[in-house]
Amino acid sequence: TVRKFPDTVMASYGPQRGYNVTTSVALNGVASDNIGQNRRAWMAFDTKVDGTDNTYWQMGDNSHYSSGTGDAVASHAPIVPGHTTRGGWLKLELPHKLLLTKIIVHSNNAKTVGSGSEGVNSAKIYGSNDDSTWYVVKDTYALNYADTSVTVAEDTISTSTAYKYIIFQITKTGGGPGAAVRELEFYGTAESTPVLARLGGSF
To answer: Is the pTM of this model over 0.85?
Structure first.
């Protein structure tokens, strides 16, 4: 059955019902979430989409992306281990593997509203089952907004592999030097865990 994940309202980085949220770290050592202003990565999974302060994920500083173009800054923006694409990202660990079919992104701004936009223009999605080797689940793509003035984008994902760890990387903004996401919704089918494994038994 296709459902939305996380299937809980995150109230911290975790662990929470088997879920954990972490972020990338830029080359200057600044984490890719704004701890100083309490706009943390886990807030992308708190089900709040109205943009109220302290309820959304925002980059930790304003140097991940070039002002005007929104392109990730090669000398500063982080990468996913084993890959070369740059951009701030967050990682969700699930209590089970998930076969992704769709993602909905609630951007903090529309994707193109001027050089100051924190809107998410393009992204890339990765998956892993060991938190070490990362595979591209959806290569760099322009988010499917209905038009340039809306902030909600829905995109399908085609993969035959279920993953326990998912990374969402913002590769380009709407022109601003930073980026912010009100909410991320991952949709898919949870991989069932064999009864013996759930009980701690062996095969």
So the answer is: yes
